[in-house]
Write a structure and sequence with these properties.
Blueprint (H helix, E strand, L loop, with lengths): L1 H29 L1 H4 L2 H10 L6 E10 L2 E11 L2 E8 L4 E3 L6 E6 L2 E6 L1 H16 L4 E7 L3 E2 L7 E3 L3 H6 L8 H12 L4
Parallel strand pairs: 3-7, 4-8, 7-9
Antiparallel strand pairs: 1-2, 2-3, 4-5, 5-6
């Protein structure tokens, strides 16, 4: 009877050890994504777009009151996509019209300036330099979970391909594409 009880406890202990190892493995594999920078995650997705898209990153636009860095501009016949990357980790809440949004993470609560407004500043700067174009805004979140609806322009990096697939109407003619690419090449960092 005592041997049966010992075998029972040994099996329980072995199951707990295996369960603990699986939990550690699961937690470590879940953190692999966070080891990749937000820049790399977004660039990997943009690299999957294909030859119909020309991707520019880290563009510097000189303004009257300084300079502005734009994370990504993607030019295609479907429009001029202006992407602002947000690499915050945590849960983001707020309203798309609020000046600040709340970020809740393991480290506590913090606030960020509304990245949709930042994206609008980028588009305004580009409009001053290259004129009126069919600009399509997007704010790409590398790691954050969006708790509220910030509209169709706020997407997680995993939704980026779907975002581009929603825009399939030709808005920019071929000659205009070449001119846009030439102008944007002057803003390269």
């Amino acid at each position: 009877m005592i041997e049966i009880a010992n075998v029972y406890w040994i099996k329980i202990l072995a199951a707990l050890v295996i369960f603990s190892i699986l939990i550690i493995f699961f937690l470590r594999s879940g953190n692999e994504k966070s080891k990749i920078s937000g820049v790399k995650l977004v660039e990997m997705e943009l690299g999957r777009l294909g030859e119909n898209y020309k991707v520019f990153n880290n563009l510097i636009v000189k303004l009257e009151r300084g300079m502005l860095r734009i994370d990504y501009v993607v030019v295609s016949s479907y429009g001029v996509f202006v992407l602002t990357r947000c690499d915050r980790i945590g849960k983001i809440s707020g309203h798309k019209d609020n000046r600040e949004w709340k970020v809740t993470s393991r480290d506590g609560e913090d606030t960020i300036l509304n990245p949709i407004w930042e994206n609008r500043k980028h588009i305004n700067a580009l409009e001053k330099k290259i004129g009126s174009q069919p600009f399509i805004p997007a704010v790409v979140f590398s790691y954050a979970k969006l708790l509220d609806d910030f509209g169709p322009i706020a997407v997680n990096v995993g939704q980026l391909q779907d975002f581009f697939l929603r825009h399939t109407r030709t808005l920019v003619m071929h000659d205009d594409l070449e001119l846009l690419v030439d102008v944007l090449n002057k803003f390269k960092n």
